[in-house]
Amino acid sequence: MFTPITFASILPEILILALGLLILIFEPFWKEDQRRNAGWLTAGGLLVTMIVSLLFGRPGEPTATLGGMIRFDWLGFFLKMLFMFAGAATALLLMDHEKAGKRGEAYLLLLASLLGMNLMAVSSDLVMLYLAIETASIPLYILSGFLLNDERSTEAGFKYLLFGTVASTVMLYGFSLVYGFSGTTDLVEIAAMFTSSNLSPLLGFGVLVLILVGLGFKVSAVPFHFWAPDVYQGAPTPVAGYLSTASKAAGFAVVLRLFFIAFPDFSEVWMPILALLAAISMTVGNLLALPQTNIKRLLAFSSISHAGYALIGVVAFSELGATSVVFYLAAYIATNLLAFGIVMAFSRITGLEEITDYAGLSRRNPLLALMMLAAFLSLAGMPPFGGFVAKVFVFAAGVEANFVWLVIVGILNSIIGVYYYLNVLKYVYLYRMPGEDEEQHPVPLTRPYTIALVMLVVGVVLIGTVFAPWFGWSSDGVFVLFN
Amino acid sequence: MVPLSWYLMFAAALFSIGLFGVLTRRNAIAILLGVELMLNAVNINLVAFWRYSDVMAMAGQVFAVIVFAVAAAEVSVGLALVISVYRRRNTVVADELDMLKW
Predict the structure, then answer these.
(1) Do the chains contact at B49 and A141, CB–CB below 8 Å?
(2) Which residues of A touch B (CB under 8 A)?
(3) Domains of chain A: total
(4) How is chain B split into domains, by residue range?
(5) By residue range, what is the domain housing residue A214?
């Protein structure tokens, strides 16, 4: 049973676990002011993990390992790389967080949830899937409520936990019914059983709705989005960035695998539901983003609308559609982490989070303002940044699958989006601080921030300009969903 | 032998009671109790389905055991967060936690 390929298939997870133990061992020996080094260790360790996995853990032919619990294929591998990249960037952003950065547990919890997300990307069995989702979620509940002396943070953790447990339990009830109807927990066998057993579409609809509650919560699609703005605002900013990128992308990984592999026979049932969810998510997310004054809440609503855009690719239910989702996730992870990283870097110095507080940032720190320009234009979907190409592919997939109305809704929403993203940039570039003495109030960046933010900007620009290889990897990945 | 549908109806009723509790109760502890009821309904489903299908295939039982373990982890984290909220705010009533609003 334990052949070399078994170990190769979970190589990144083994290394992440070892890294977590390493932090547990080292952290008690460090003095208070050295503890932030755990962030360097985490980020460096994740980088090493990525390199080692690239060298020794590449998948060949798609195989099932660990008794069918895990699929070892390119889709999982590419997504794992994205998650680990996001984890490394988050660890760097966490380092100079005033209260969380010097606590080794924060990095350990980050790694634990990363482990769960990696498994979410590859699990091909309902049992493993549930376990992976919970492994990813439970550390995130704790991280959201990590700042025990901060009322907002404890409240965020509390709300996230209540919404999260209920949503995942409803999904689990759906899983138990799927197991009952098909008699198996293996995703591939479930599809085969449903093909031969002709379950009534009404029952299929009920089960899919139960499952969608949990997954909709994970990707924060409307109407399961209520937690997102509150949690993003209250949680430590790097954690909020991680929640809105890696956690959401992991949710999409599950959506792809579950719906494309286990429920292709019910595509007529779930395609309209998801199309509706996509349309509402985009519209509600964008419209509610308009009146926001707090930048983290603005980004929260923007991330709800981005879940809607990415869902268009799922709805298309085609190879191009799945490819565009994976590509969208890559672009979105880099872009949104960059946006949250900038918010973190700014509020660390100033302690402020309102949009109006960003007035005059271009004079206080030109580099930071330029990176903010890249992040927000990419979110708005402007070339030459990643967000533009990602949107083009998603919309193309939608048109190809004859969901023209959905694409029109998407394009109208992108226009609304441009308004509020540019509104923030207006404060950054056109307005000046009260008193017009920006030179007296610089916003310096520490080294971890510079590294993380520059890395992310390079990612955003690379995905937007040299998009062919990214598209190629995405399309190599989703090949397994259709064969 | 009791037919399978009885177990499923029982589980569905338990799940609905739990969900009702979650949606109507304002006390955080009561909400967590509702979640526990829902998880128990899932376990009844899983074990009943396992018993009435291929008994040699262990997937259903393994699933139920994993659900216990995860439920325990979830509740312990949940209670810890409830305590941390209580220490800051002296309340565990969900409606009164409304700092984060737009």
Answers:
(1) no
(2) 126-127, 130-131, 134, 138, 141-142, 145, 148-149, 151-152, 154-159, 161-162, 165-166, 169-170, 172-173, 175-177, 179-180, 183-185, 229-230, 233-234, 288, 291-292, 294, 297
(3) 1
(4) 4-91
(5) 4-481
Alpha carbon distances (Å) from A265 to A213, A226, A327: 20, 31, 25
* ipTM > 0.90, yes or no: yes
pLDDT digits (tens, 9 = 90+) for B15-73: 999 999 999 998 999 999 999 999 999 999 999 999 998 888 888 999 999 999 999 99
B37–A contact, CB cutoff 8 A:
no
Are the C-beta atoms of A22 and A41 separated by less than 8 Å?
Answer: yes
Protein fold of B4-91: Helix Hairpins (1.10.287)
Digit-coded pLDDT (tens) for A244-281: 999 999 999 999 999 999 999 888 889 999 999 999 99
Rounded to the nearest angstrom, the minimum Cα separation between A460 and chain B is 30
- Determine which of A165, A182, A217, A290 to mutate to test the interface with B (most B C-beta atoms within 10 Å): A165
Tokens 């049973």 locate to A1
E strand or H helix that includes residue A71 = strand A70-72
CB atoms within 10 A of CB B71: 21
Residues in A touching B74 (Cβ below 8 Å): 134, 138, 161, 165
Tokens of A19: 């890294």
Structure tokens of A331?
A: 């672009």
Amino acid code (one letter) for A384: P
Residue A397: both structure tokens together: 């997939």
